[in-house]
Amino acid sequence: MTCTDDAAPPAVETLESPARGGVPGRVRSGEKVRPEQVRVHNRELLLRTLYREGPHSRADLARRTGLTRVSVSEVVGELLADNLVVEVGTRSGSRPGKPAMMLEFHEHGHQMIALDLSHSTLYRGAVLDLGGTVVARRDVEIGGSTGDDALAKVVGLVGSLRDQVTAPLLGVGIGTPGIVDVTGVVLSAPNLGWKDLPLRSVLVERFSCPVVVSNDANATVLAERSYGRSAADTLLIRVGVGVGAGLLLDGTPVLGSRFAAGEIGHVVVDVASDRQCVCGKAGCLETWLSTRRIRDDLSRARTDAERNRVLTVAGESLGAVLAPIVAALNVSEIVLSGPHRVLEGPLADAVTATIRERALTEAHGDIVLRLSDLGDDIVLRGAGAMVMDQQLGIT
Fold first, then answer.
1. pLDDT for 17 beyond 50
2. DSSP code at position 198
3. Is the dihedral of CA 322, 185, 11, 206 positive or negative?
4. Half-sphere exposure of 253 toward its Cβ, with a 13 Å CA cutoff?
């Protein structure tokens, strides 16, 4: 199965939507607007309206968006031809005149491949439709793979999922641990043994498809915003093979000047600790909180009290790292994403208590901490949302 347009570049930044980091050709303040940018803007504006608000007639879209009816008709014709919009019958009711034909975003017209590389024992993959529904799944055991072996398993997983695609393929989205720049280069992923790996380019060359690669925590916070119930200002902590944070401020992802915003897993919590980390330091947050380390620590616990102590110490370590972040940014909500059986209870309670102990209670005492309810598919859905953002301008 091939992509909808192998040669098509990522959609340019629109006039109306917030900047999508690193997308070539975006409109900057004072830049002369080209006709192609106007066309892409109108296309994305109509798609977003139908995606978020449900069926509209052509006249509805013109009124809702402020575009002329001629512009709406032209763009709708393109979207119908591209199978991104479908006519779903005439409007019911008793309005005078000819009944209006209703248009709907076509969730089943295209599919996406999404990968989640955040787990310690396997890579998870799925084929999704544009509504985020899983069409097919496939996992591959990691078996301690790193470096080129890990890359080969990622390529193999994408290939096996491509064979299960049953509609035009919009693109491939990948959520991976580590620092990822806007061109899809994994600058550093110690747990995977990757450094300066051009993952996006490797997959584009191999599969001739649009590909977007992002840190797994950033993919997770996008899923939480798109499909969950997150606030506009949200700090999301992803616990998996590593520990990372995704940050939204006023609904906009924060990546940082060197794409490392949220890389909290390698913050040293205890300088005197002998807990060695894969990054080469000792006492990093990950040495208490990654799923692998928590599993190992819990395996040595003999009583419920010892088990609760392991989880409490992990929560206190996370709270100690988050307290200055909460104090600096005054975020209203923290979301934990990962295995609920580990995160809920003593660990989450310890995070909240530590933040309140270390930050100014009057300013941050009402902070909300909760577990994401999107389940194990949260990174997969976030990876799919990244593809829709890049290719269709839908966030």
1. no
2. -
3. negative
4. 30
